[in-house]
Amino acid sequence: MSFVWGAATAAYQIEGAADEDGRVPSIWDTYSRTPGRVRDGDTGDVATDHYHRWAQDVETMSALGLDAYRFSIAWPRIHDQRGIDFYSRLVDALLERGIAPVATLYHWDLPQSLEDAGGWPARDTAYRFAEYAERIGAALGDRVHTWTTLNEPWCSAFLGYASGVHAPGRTEPAAALAAAHHLNLAHGLAARVLPGPVSVTLNLHHVRGDAEAARRVDAVANRVFLGPMLDGAYPADLLEDTAHITDWSFVRDGDEATIAAPLDVLGVNYYTPTLVRPWNGGTPRATADGHGDGTASPWVGCDDVEFVRQPGPYTEMGWSIDPTGLTDLLLRLHRDHPDTPLMITENGAAFDDQIDADGRIHDQRRIDYLRDHLAAVGRAMKAGADVRGYFVWSLLDNFEWAHGYSKRFGIVHVDYATQERTWKDSAHWYRDHIAGRPLG
């Protein structure tokens, strides 16, 4: 199988058209419209207007020479046939240009009505997700190259329900663990009704530092998903570490077997490694993820762990740039799950991009970031990791969740006032890199 080169986006971050063609409200509509939640009061109501400019964006993908495009389907949009028709047109246009459609069913935009009924901590949400998967799977059929059930369920569960820095903004540790389980269950149920190859995308944390601290974080960051999905069971140490928070009674007989549906490929999102050490219980923790400063922490069951800011250089997100973590993570997955093919489904960086006097965006730091991380993928492959492809994050500048429009990840610049698209130097570089087909 040839190596797949692609780019990725997410529906709420780019589509806009929040109230058009029967789309119903999502938790991110509610969250972003709540004062104080998102920087500068930004919302995704317009985003980059992809819903109306999708044909132009597909032409950009074709000009870049992409093999594949990873996009998400907005669950709130498929309640109306006009929403389904939008994705059908998009898929057909991609196929006409030889671009494989890679469709993610859930990239964080839960319909608000389901949150009102309990959200992901409620078991019924998993069943509603399976119904949604079956409906959209039937509509798009085998035109989709690969179906991705969930994007980064760690963020959905722990940022959404433990720390509250993502929608729906709840700070309930026990609910976060229940949400993680029901996201896992939703994945397993959906995988059994989707046509064609199935994947899931995890933002796996490469954790370094003190061994015991790293073990605790690895349990709630990685193995809470890898355990049931790939090994058929939750790890015992995770259950022990969190027993004071919940008794895990939401896990019913047969759930873990359902979650362990066969995977055709495991999607891996990587941006930066995680450094931890024991917390001495003294002064308030200054943590790399902004917690320990009076805000709630997403690291459920890790109260005795400190997250340490790593050495620079840093991206605009404040994340250290360290491609060795990507090599190490891929080799860890190859060692632990040698029969599971891997795909880099997100990798990229936010920088303070400016249009220069010559009308171009000279984002050399992003080019360096991409080159070094692709080299890291190449090293892992040479050491035996079965990596099938790479998707840059992101095709377009977009609505970056709680950061609003203040962080730019795209290789294509978007003027949010005019919606004009401009290729950054990194887009030209990525096009040339794809044409040459090197792996690093």
Automatic annotation (TrEMBL):
<dbReference type="InterPro" id="IPR017736">
    <property type="entry name" value="Glyco_hydro_1_beta-glucosidase"/>
</dbReference>
<feature type="binding site">
    <location>
        <position position="13"/>
    </location>
    <ligand>
        <name>substrate</name>
    </ligand>
</feature>
<feature type="binding site">
    <location>
        <position position="151"/>
    </location>
    <ligand>
        <name>substrate</name>
    </ligand>
</feature>
<protein>
    <recommendedName>
        <fullName>Beta-glucosidase</fullName>
        <ecNumber>3.2.1.21</ecNumber>
    </recommendedName>
</protein>
<feature type="binding site">
    <location>
        <position position="107"/>
    </location>
    <ligand>
        <name>substrate</name>
    </ligand>
</feature>
<feature type="binding site">
    <location>
        <position position="393"/>
    </location>
    <ligand>
        <name>substrate</name>
    </ligand>
</feature>
<feature type="active site" description="Nucleophile">
    <location>
        <position position="346"/>
    </location>
</feature>
<dbReference type="InterPro" id="IPR017853">
    <property type="entry name" value="GH"/>
</dbReference>
<keyword id="KW-0378">Hydrolase</keyword>
<keyword id="KW-0119">Carbohydrate metabolism</keyword>
<dbReference type="GO" id="GO:0030245">
    <property type="term" value="P:cellulose catabolic process"/>
</dbReference>
<dbReference type="InterPro" id="IPR001360">
    <property type="entry name" value="Glyco_hydro_1"/>
</dbReference>
<keyword id="KW-0136">Cellulose degradation</keyword>
<feature type="binding site">
    <location>
        <position position="271"/>
    </location>
    <ligand>
        <name>substrate</name>
    </ligand>
</feature>
<keyword id="KW-0326">Glycosidase</keyword>
<keyword id="KW-0624">Polysaccharide degradation</keyword>
<comment type="similarity">
    <text>Belongs to the glycosyl hydrolase 1 family.</text>
</comment>
<dbReference type="GO" id="GO:0005829">
    <property type="term" value="C:cytosol"/>
</dbReference>
<dbReference type="GO" id="GO:0008422">
    <property type="term" value="F:beta-glucosidase activity"/>
</dbReference>
<dbReference type="Pfam" id="PF00232">
    <property type="entry name" value="Glyco_hydro_1"/>
</dbReference>
<dbReference type="InterPro" id="IPR033132">
    <property type="entry name" value="GH_1_N_CS"/>
</dbReference>
<feature type="active site" description="Proton donor">
    <location>
        <position position="152"/>
    </location>
</feature>
<feature type="binding site">
    <location>
        <begin position="400"/>
        <end position="401"/>
    </location>
    <ligand>
        <name>substrate</name>
    </ligand>
</feature>
